[in-house]
Design goal:
Number of helices: 3
Shape: rod-shaped
Strand content: under 5%
Radius of gyration: 35 Å
Low-confidence stretches: none
Largest sheet: none
Length: about 80
Amino acid sequence: MPMGFGGWWILPLVGMGMMAVFGWLFFSRILGRPSQPPRTLPPPTPPADPLEVARERFAQGLISKEEFDEVAERLVRTEKPH
């Protein structure tokens, strides 16, 4: 027993040292960080015109002429007057 208590006395000192280091790192990250402006969401995009979407799909070949005519007729029929 060269250290008197078998060397176990060093463990609390190492533990306190580790707590001090981690505490310093933690608080320096939180308190040392410059304040950032709050994040804002981008403005909402206006809804796409359904007739324009149908035109684009027809132009890309995703829908046939008959499907486009059906969609366009249904949209024109259900359109609210301005």
